[in-house]
Amino acid sequence: MQFATLTRLARKPYGLAALATASFACVLLLAASVTSGAGFNLPLLGDQAGILLGATVAALVIAGGIGWMAFDRLRSKESQSRAEITALKRSLTAADSVIRSEPQVLLYWEQDKPLAVAAYTLHGIPGLPDSPEKFLRFGNWLEPASAAALKPAIDALFASGHPFNLIVRTTADGHLEAEGRTSGGRAILRFRDVAGHRDEVARIMAQHQRLAREVRASRALLDALPIPVWLRAKDGRITWVNNAYVRAVEARGRSEVHERQIELLEQRQRRNAARVLARGEGYRDRLHLIVGRDRRLFDVTMLPFDEATAAVAVEVPSLEKPQGEGERPQFYDSTLNRVATAVAVFNDRQQLVFFNEAFRKLWRLDEAWLKSRPSAGAILDRLRELGRLPQVVNYAEWKENILDAYASPSVSDDTWSLPDGRTLQVRPEKNSDGGITYLFIDDTDRLALEREINALVNVQRETLDTLKEGVAVFGTDGRLKLFNAALAEIWDLPKRALAEHPHIDAFIEQSRPLYDDPAIWNRLNHSVTSISEHREEFTGQMMRSNETLIDYAAMPLPDGATLLTFSDVTNAKRYERMLEERNAALVAADRIKNAFISHVSYKLRTPLTSIIGFSEMLSNPIIGPLNDKQEEYLADISNSSKELLTTIDDILTLASIDAGSMDLKLASIDVSTVIDAAIVGVREAASHSRLSLSIGVADDARSFIGDEARVRQILFNLLSNAVSFSKPGDTIEINCRRDSEMVVFTVADEGVGIAKDDLWRVFDRFESGNHSAGHRGAGLGLSIVKSLVELHGGTVTLESEPNLGTRVTVRLPANGRPDKADPALPYEGPAAQLSAGSKSA
């Protein structure tokens, strides 16, 4: 038992020390006793020295064992303590890593200790300081409202450990979440970034604070106003009133108004207002209200909102002086006398107390009688007698309704259709004394103009709807103001969607399935939404996904709007391509024909020259005599050959012009000489047909610059044509005059003329004109004239009417072909100017 007790004692460090001390004490005591030999009684040991020595050794062994056990125990405890310290350090490092891994500023305070910064890992917030020292100066980087809210929260945290959570804003409009709490006797303050929904909450809170400030400011302003203002909830209860309202209803304060629901308006007035507000419209009326002990006139306005109604009552000042009725300011009369609107003021006894000049002229009443202050009823009766009031079924009832307005708290406008066709807008206004001021506005012209405008709008609408082009007018706000049915059809859009006035962006998005070229749409969008003063119109084409071709155009309008037009030209372009291809084929065929004729003409010229030469040789008497029949045949051969040679020469001339190889030999031309030379060629034919030639040359047109041979050819062909289509005994006129920088030749005949339907082709090649006259020819004369005139830089016109003759006018430059004038191009069809009409003198 004693050994067990010793063992338990040895397990504790202080027990081991006690046992070791006791053992050493016993050893020392026994050693001292043995050494002295006396003075120390140990009855338990006896006298034997051996026993004493054994006990001593035993004590030493026990002490050594106990010491060893104590040392081993201490070493084990030290190892355990080191392991615990290592684990604590590892945990501390992990905790520090976790704390620093989150973007935050973490601060804590302990009692009687300075501030400690646990983490400063928050960055990227606008206005956040870059060091803990600057961070603690909250007033320097937080906005005043946030700093003012944070300070008492921190004070409460230190004083009572009261936690808080705030959203604060920096001076650079950054937002932070500030959280304060206590833990183990420490005060902890943490700042974190407001992200995600917390950022939205921060903005909402900031907006809420701003709105709250605005509401407080608005209510303070409304409280300072001298006019009653009140708010009413959706259920009709008054929720807020200003001080002027409290004074108007003589309440002790707002609380009494809220509790008792003290109303400023009468029940009937509130019902009238409620009916208007129920339609979602604002209510405005002039009402008599009891304020204090007085009955005053107020303009009452009520505006409905989502969940409330705001109302205000503005007192209408009296227009009359307190000295008595009819004593108005002088400017009142003079001003109203200058306006075009008829004005009449009646007092509460229905007497006319004022009228302006426009009122007298409107009703054409005697001024002296009006100044006698007749009653409203008397004026109505007088106007009825004169036949100037509207025709009504029951005049007495109509008059009674008008006069009842004096006893009614409110009046309404009316429209009078007078017997003379005029339309009047009658607008009564209640006066503060209970009377009424009437305004008579002549709306006749306005209504007529409105009808005209409506008619024009309808015509415009019908016109637009009949157009095949899609028309869209966009206003300055970018919204569609006007469109026609063709626009909806071209872009396959529902008319209902277009009638909702979509923005140009929405219109483009709805049209993209058919055409999706961003460049074109952006340009059209810019033309509509641009605010530049220098807008220009432009046009273009769109090849849409459905293989249709659309011509578009954008045109700025004077009022700032923009007109867009879209035209489906798919079929037109298809026909245009077909016509171009056909025209190209015709031009090519015509050129081939001309080339063939030119080639053949060259080939015919050589044998024809031989025929003419041999015929002339046969006609020479040297060859031998010919009988009459042979001479006749030989003359026919010679004449036919010469005609054929002339035709071939004409063809070659046209071929040279078409090829652009003909050069003019410009020189001074004597007009009389060139006319005489041209006449020589037709003199024999004219004599044979008994035709007279009349020549006239103006003094200022004696000469000009040109190619004499070609001018002679022009005149010869014109004279030859005139001779061919003239009747025996007719007169052919050839005149020349000067017209500014042009020399004008005119050849006129009295022949059969040309039908109107044939005028357009008289200058075509191989068109010989009217065959009824028995004329046969190749039809190249006028074609050559046209080509040679154009080669000179001139023009040719033709006037003709059947049986009245033909007049051909050639205009040539007096100083030669202008340098900038284009030479005659290869023949591609008629281009001369033609006109049909009677022969001019």
Describe the protein.
The chain is α+β, with helices and mostly antiparallel strands and 841 residues long. It folds into six domains: 2-76, no CATH class; 102-205, Beta-Lactamase (2-Layer Sandwich); 225-315, PAS domain (Beta-Lactamase), CATH 3.30.450.20; 334-442, 2-Layer Sandwich (Beta-Lactamase); 449-568, PAS domain (Beta-Lactamase, 2-Layer Sandwich); 663-836, Histidine kinase-like ATPase, C-terminal domain (Heat Shock Protein 90), CATH 3.30.565.10. The chain is 46% helix and 22% strand. The strands form six sheets. A six-stranded mixed beta sheet has the order 22-24-25-27-26-28, covered by helices on one side. A five-stranded antiparallel beta sheet has the order 2-1-5-4-3, with helices on both faces. A five-stranded antiparallel beta sheet has the order 7-6-10-9-8. β24 and β25 (742-749) form a beta hairpin. α1 (2-10) crosses α2. The longest helix is centred in the first third of the chain and has 53 residues, at 49-101. 20% of the residues are buried. The model is unreliable at 319-328, 771-778 and 820-841 (pLDDT under 50).
